[in-house]
Design a protein that fits this description.
Blueprint (H helix, E strand, L loop, with lengths): L3 E6 L3 H12 L4 E7 L3 H9 L5 E3 L2 H5 L6 E4 L6 H10 L4 E3 L7 H14 L4 E3 L7 H11 L6 E9 L9 H20 L3 E7 L15 E7 L4 E7 L7 E8 L2 E5 L7 E4 L2 E4 L5 H4 L1 H15 L9 H20 L3 E2 L11
Parallel strand pairs: 1-2, 1-4, 2-3, 4-5, 5-6, 7-10
Antiparallel strand pairs: 7-11, 8-9, 8-15, 9-10, 11-12, 13-14
Helix pairs in contact: 4-5, 5-10, 6-7, 7-10
Bound molecules: (2R,3S,4s,5R,6S)-2,3,4,5,6-pentahydroxycyclohexanone.
């Protein structure tokens, strides 16, 4: 079986993690080109790979010999151009979230795919590949807790990176709950409201952290998301679904080692999403590699990326103006139905 040659664009935290993953846990693929504007970093990453070329220009990496598919892990504003380059070459793409920072960019990506007449872009909403999320989805689809009324979500990071802004709590973090809620419920998000309490003293000056984001859905459910990116104690993602006939909780702990000592019982908390969702990232990449080898994608598509971007935009406006904002979506094109 021939190996799928992947160009990895962006060698920061996620890009480097994917490069490691392709080398170690994903069969049938190898990294043949890497790109990053930071020349030293990209050379260092390429040096650890057998025969991969290093580029400071993403388009050059996409056009490098042996590239069959493209994994985009550069910052969001660089995604659209990189995707359009790949689509011109009809290459399958796995793009880290957000697909594009703004819905208009996502619409341009969808237009390019529609011109090709097939879907080649998958968005890296990796929670859809997490075993607990998959079980919750199966339960909801089977009607196991009846018609869903609420999703109560908590999304906590130990500390935010230095470049994090108040808008990013919504567009970079809550965007995962936006996608998860759309997927779990099979409904679109129709409106967003945001409450911002007095920030934690652990937050950098000016950062509105934490926030409470309320999402209303097309099927009449309500999703509340506590986003708290400087909680200090670790990485925690929980989701409790409440339906007419019961409730189900994922991310509620219970995994990992339980220690009992000196009259206390305690467990361990992952410190980071690359640890908590390591299996989900692996499964996402394995399934994408298998599908990409056949010129297909196997996960959230450009419509999902577009819908999430539209909700983020409404959420950012809702937070700024202190009002509930409706989410406006174009009609769903036939390719994405
Ligand atoms: C980060 O970009 C992620 O995607 C993580 O899953 C999320 O927990 C974090 O808040 C984001 O900044």
């Amino acid at each position: 079986m021939s190996m799928l040659g992947i160009a990895v664009l962006g060698t920061g935290k996620m890009g480097a993690d994917h490069v490691r993953r392709i080398g170690r846990t994903v069969g049938g693929a190898r990294v043949v080109a890497v790109a990053d504007p930071d020349a030293d970093r990209v050379k260092e990453v390429a040096a650890g790979l057998d025969g991969a070329s290093a580029h400071t220009d993403a388009a050059a990496a996409t056009a490098a010999p042996g590239v069959d598919a493209v994994l985009i892990a550069s910052p969001g504003p660089a995604h659209e151009e990189a995707i359009l380059h790949a689509l011109r070459r009809e290459l399958p793409v796995l793009c880290e979230k957000p697909l594009t920072p703004d819905p208009k960019g996502a619409l341009r990506v969808m237009e390019a795919e529609q011109r090709l007449g097939r879907k080649l872009v998958q968005v890296g909403f990796m929670r859809r590949f997490d075993a607990e999320y998959e079980r919750l989805k199966e339960l909801l689809d089977a009607g196991g807790i009846g018609r869903p009324l609420f999703l109560h979500c908590r999304h906590r990071n130990a500390a935010s990176p230095s470049f994090f802004t108040s808008d990013m709590l919504i567009s970079d973090s809550v965007v995962h709950e936006v996608d998860a809620a759309r997927w779990l419920l099979g409904q679109e998000i129709t409106a967003v409201s945001v409450l911002s309490p007095t920030p934690t003293s652990a937050a950098p000056e000016g950062l509105r952290d934490p926030r409470l984001v309320l999402l209303e859905t097309s099927g009449g459910a309500v999703v509340d998301v506590e986003i708290f990116v400087n909680c200090g104690f670790g990485y925690e993602v929980r989701c409790e679904a409440v339906g007419e006939a019961g409730s189900a909780l994922i991310g509620g702990g219970g995994e990992g080692m339980l220690v009992q000592s000196a009259g206390r019982r305690y467990g361990e908390i992952a410190q980071d999403f690359t640890v908590r969702f390591a299996d989900a990232y692996d499964r996402q990449l394995r399934r994408w590699v298998a599908a990409a080898a056949q010129g297909r994608v196997a996960g959230p598509d450009a419509w999902d990326g577009y819908a999430a971007a539209a909700v983020s935009r409404a959420g950012i406006a809702a937070a700024r103006d202190g009002v509930r904002r409706a989410v406006e979506l174009v009609d769903r094109p036939a390719l994405y139905r």
